[in-house]
TrEMBL record:
<keyword id="KW-0812">Transmembrane</keyword>
<feature type="transmembrane region" description="Helical">
    <location>
        <begin position="104"/>
        <end position="129"/>
    </location>
</feature>
<dbReference type="Pfam" id="PF04505">
    <property type="entry name" value="CD225"/>
</dbReference>
<comment type="similarity">
    <text>Belongs to the CD225/Dispanin family.</text>
</comment>
<protein>
    <submittedName>
        <fullName>Uncharacterized protein</fullName>
    </submittedName>
</protein>
<dbReference type="InterPro" id="IPR007593">
    <property type="entry name" value="CD225/Dispanin_fam"/>
</dbReference>
<keyword id="KW-1133">Transmembrane helix</keyword>
<keyword id="KW-0472">Membrane</keyword>
<dbReference type="InterPro" id="IPR051517">
    <property type="entry name" value="IFITM_antiviral_protein"/>
</dbReference>
<dbReference type="GO" id="GO:0005886">
    <property type="term" value="C:plasma membrane"/>
</dbReference>
<feature type="transmembrane region" description="Helical">
    <location>
        <begin position="56"/>
        <end position="79"/>
    </location>
</feature>
Amino acid sequence: RRKIGLCQPQKPLKGNQYHVDSNTLLLTHHSPLQTTVELTAMNPVGLRLSHCRWDYIIWSLFSLVYSNPFCLGLVALIYSVKSRDRKVAGDLEGARSYGTSARFLNIVAIVLSATGFLMFIVIYCTLYYNINRHYY
């Protein structure tokens, strides 16, 4: 325990906890004999849970709409939704696992779509060149 002097809490939370800034939490314990004020460092992941981007849902929607070979965009979207559900439930490891799978599926979908598009352009240009060469 480390006692500190006066500290002005910024925002009250539940019970006897007060939020001071993004990395600290002011805990006040009231007992009949004394009042102790402690400064405890919080887990930054727990404080910034809403800022964690492990679900890649926007990227998955893009993959679903614009590049969806073998329905990989749909599967990536499903994993993204599962990742968001796990994050809301508080299971950070599950959210990270589903998010990693969604990211991998999105990368594979984009690479396959780009490769297919480039192959289409090369084949089209080759056929166009060969057809025009025979007629002129």
